[in-house]
Structures
1.
Amino acid sequence: MDDLFATLDALAVGELVRTRKLGARELLDGTLANLRALNAELNAITDFYDDVPSAAEGPFQGVPFVVKQLMADCAGHPTTLGSRFFAAQPVAAADSAAVARMRKAGLVIVGRTNTSEFGLAPTTEPVFGGPTRNPWRHDLSPGGSSGGSAAIVAARGLPMAHATDGGGSIRIPASLCGLFGLKPSRGRISMAPIGETLAGAGAQLCNSISVRDSAALLDALAGGEPGDPYVSPPAGGTFLDATKREPGRVRVAFMRKPVGGETLDPVLVAAVEATAKKLEALGHHVEEAAPEYDAAATGAAFWTVMCANTWTNIQVRANGRVPGPDDLEPVTRLYAERGRQVSAHDYIRSVQTFHRTGRALGQFFTKHDILLSPTIARMSLPLGVVRMDGSAEDYERELAPMVPFTSVCNAAGVPAMSVPLEWTADGLPIGMHFVGRFGVEERLFSLAAQLERAHPWAQRKPGRQT
């Protein structure tokens, strides 16, 4: 069982269980034993669940799965948000809509994964949960805030794991851990029962080894719940079917630097150029171009929304409890206090900036189908670099190179994915970032599957460290 997920993805394992070529109990017990051993090295899973129900019939029948400690509830358990303040309460009365759909698809939820406190950091080093280590190199971060999920998948403990994305938190860990990670369009997956998340910037899906697992999971989770504030337009078919189709000739624009930013490290520029050549060899039209939007204004709006949501979420979830001096990490407390002071005027202006940015990207995608760049503006992230116990200035300085390509997609609500196509000279993964038109995840999945066939990555995996 130790090497099952080194060779098979979740759909393949689900098929073995469905056809009774692999016992569900055998799979569960063997996977849990392996996860506990890996977790001793990586500190990726915060909680293991003993109350595991029988698997439902579905495409992922019997496949063990873990859910991030953020933006999703599992009935009978707390959702800690990576914070000491919510370590024990509130306990979820019911599954969130997405978790209920995970179970309906056959997934067996066996635990929760580590995250930065409230998902604020692009690393996974909360005081409450402790740092998660990157299986490629234990002195490196797996990224964040879905670093726990990415680390356990990269180590082949599971074929995929739940992840959320408010500014890049699916794609950043995917890039640093050599995985596939797609952030869906705004409203593609319901966030019920919670309300609007980050003015519509929040999304969820997974980190996975294979493209088709992410596509099939999106098929299972997609769709709104009554009263949802946003719903994405219906797809033209299943997302899984999109992975089986050739994408046709795609118009790809590529960037050598972020909008409004400085030129990238030559290694990253070379990675973009190498990916552009791969795309040209597959018959796609590739040219250098970038959208036009006010990156500084979008970034400022993002932080206004993030701070206001942090303050409000603490108040709502705490149900009258007041955080003590040691209940929140210093940067979290600082941004929550800033959020308390955000005026209605400033918040509405920030949401309007999101919408202007979305329209700018919409105009760009009338001329181009895909926008290509690196996922992050650095090759690796050592543990301890992004700190939540220092000043806001230090935190923001280290945050800046992590999100210049990702967060605009959240503000605009468009789908985007990180694909492990390039590698550093010393063998670390470099994720390449592909952004698509709103509501058109099918094209991203089709292109990713074509690249996966032409340049497979599943066989490249980290070795066990001692």
2.
Amino acid sequence: MTPGASLRITVAGAGAIGTALAARLGHGGHRVSVLARGATLQNLRTHGARLDDASGSVASPVTADSQPSFGHQDIVFLCCKSQDLPALAEQVAPLVGTGTLIVPAVNGVPFWYFHQEGGRFQGRHVEAVDPGGRIGGWLPLDQVIGAVTFITAESAEPGHTVARNPHLMMLGEPGNTISPRLLGVCAALEQSGIEARPIERLRDKLWTKIIANVTSNPLSVTSGATLDQIYSRPDLLPTVRAVMLETGVSSFSVQ
């Protein structure tokens, strides 16, 4: 990838995070296609991918379709819930050529976790995320760039996202190297106004995000508190610390 070049990029899944990525990448000069459906598809075709963030408001024209009709891409971002990945992997397979990089922007333990991991479980698949190892059958694992996404976003309406906080993504090779292709993906994101950090040991950052999600997700539902309140309210902090400690000890026991 040539720094500053206009890349062919597909965002598969146009929820809050997917729409934010599509809007930013389109604003950065890339040729963005979006795989979407229903009202989101119609709004993307009519208004483009819209984003209100700390830099202002952008509406980036995108090519949108419910089918993978865009041809081989330079980068495919997978933006969905982990339980939807097997079906999405099969759907986007026609977009993946020999030079296509696949970036799953998905929370939780990723389907590629043991690929090039180097430990005793190397080569296994995560059954809870990838039943039967089907995702690796549709998407070449050697073309995956891992990602941990720190973008706080909400959907104002289909195809329109509000994300006022700074946009940050950490990206890394499953084999723990800083490769030219990793730097190329980071450059494409940086060009589009998204801070992108190349990380040598991305799995460490994955567990940091998982521990944060295990802490904040249930507490936000049960208490109605915002993230800022969850990590500052005296009545919630003891629970936060207890959940973090329990999750951290459990995660280290399986690594």
3.
Amino acid sequence: MKGFTRTEPRFSLCGLNCVLCSMHLGGYCPGCGGGAGNQSCAKARCSLEHGSISFCWQCPKYPCSHYESFDDGDSFVPHRNRKQDIAQAEKLGLGAYLAQLEEKRAILEKLLAHYNDGRRKTLFSTAVYLLPLEDLRFVMAALDSRAKPGEQAVRERALAAAELLQEAADRRGIGLKRSQKPKKG
């Protein structure tokens, strides 16, 4: 969208944790305002109309009609918790929130580098995106206390990581599988 730029590519205007998004990490999306990404985004257009605000929560009209049923049943995981993530960024302050996102990104990179058997990227990405940081720290500490990556087959490491992440998600009632949008009508 002409005239729309972002100074913070790790956390989007509408609350996406871009730094953890598999599309962004894979180089398929530069993030809003970062180039050829979703240039038809209604929220980007709205931002321009409201003085080029950096984040929707800074708008006096937030939450507006753009946020009705915003996170309901979207199969694209980064879209699931945007309102919750915006609230967390507001509460902690952007700097502290971004520091947490960077710690989560480091955890995801470690999972992908040392525990991925070629079948777990989606699970790891989803779990890191949705689980609270304290749960991820616990899972990583448990994995670190086991055999070192070179001492165990990658398949065994992947299974152990997947089990620990699923247990953490189950304790929180967080589904790590894609959800479908409710049918209209």
4.
Amino acid sequence: MLNIPKEKFELAEDTDRIRHSPPPARHVGYFADAWTRFRKNKASITASVIIVGIILFSLLTPLFVRGEKVGGLDSYYSKKGPYLSSGLNIPFFDGGKSRSFNARGLLHIYGISLGACDGDGTGNVSIKEISDTYKTVLTPTYKVIGSYEGGRYKARIDTYAEVGFVYMQLTREEYANIAAWQDQNNVRVLYPLIASNQFNPDINDANYWYRADTSSKNQPIDLNGNPIKLSENTRLAENYERDAEGNLVYAKRVGGGDGEALRVRVLYRNYYIYQNGAPPSFILGTDSQGYDLALRLSEGIRLSLFISVTVSLINFLIGAVYGAIEGYFGGLPDLILERIADVLACVPFIVVATLFQLHLSERLGKIPSLLFAFVLTGWIAVASRVRTQFYRFKRQEYVLSARTLGASDARIMLKHIFPNALGTIVTSSVLIIPTVILNESMLSFLGIVNLGSSDTTSLGTLLSEASNIWTNYPHLMIIPALVISLLMICFNLFGNGLRDALNPSLRGVE
């Protein structure tokens, strides 16, 4: 035994350097502790940020779409790529597309710009002059004639500018308003009509304003009938309609009586500015019908989230009550309720959804009937989890103690068992959301449920509309598919984070 001399000891007073007992533990509430654990899960936090970003996109996008006309249907600008009219020609957001042309096809593309510069009908504008002033007039996004390879010209064009000129019927009042607006803003909208003669290959195409040889694949020709060659100094020969005095004709009467209308030829980009007060700007492009894809995508996200969250909440309530009764009371009630759930679980969901759409959608509407289809069997998985948790916890010591102290069945279920099962129940309910989004998208994609209309759509409907044309317009398929993938992945990661955070057995564990 080791003997220590008394002089080695020193009497110490109670100071900050010496503590006789550990510091008192700080009480942390259940949800505060759950939040502490949840925020340490980097994957769940990242998923939460992405989900919030997608929700904000769906809510804020309609606020930044300039007016109803911009967000509405515009068939002339259908299937166009992302485009920002900032004049910066940002890659991917320039509305451009790379194509190859023969000399005649490239001349036709340049003819749109030449015609836009030739509002007075002189025909005295060259390709080089378009290039010199290309920032202020309608023109393809390249300044020079495209590169020449293998007998073809390769160039990147502005698909919005490619629309060029269109024919319209206007009332006299509308015609007068446009004429006054273009004089006031120095932006030409109305252009001369094209003559219907042997030099016009297509009387319905407002872009053939120049003379063309209809017997030689619409080859542009000069006033002497000679083919026009492609060069920077090329000028096309105009073929505008003129009256008996040789003046250009800008409007022609059609119909009669009080409903008399005028047939006019407009430069559509400038007409769009007249209608909407700004050039076309579609950050994600347009869909197959001509709607703003960003606006339609936000509508689809809102609809998908509304359906999935509503289904999740309803299934949570039904499944929690059903499973709690099964697991707590057991015996005959459990046996009967389980057999009912087994019967419902054997009914294929796609059959239920199809029958509900055929027989209930006309009475209740498409969305309510779809909600019924999801809820009819969707709560079964939640009920099974709740039942398992109640069987697990109802024999625990704290439950027996509460029962011994006279606690009622309802109090034991709500105050003692349910909080311990909350993490698993919430997780299963949250994981219903991506499942509903996937199933709703599948039903819309297959055409079983049609949620597309002029004022709403779904992500699956957007995919369905793009399924036949996505090879030529990949953005119509890629963007909705990417959103669906992000929602499914992020909600799964978010649900896993909630499961760990709300697990009472992990409380206080770092």
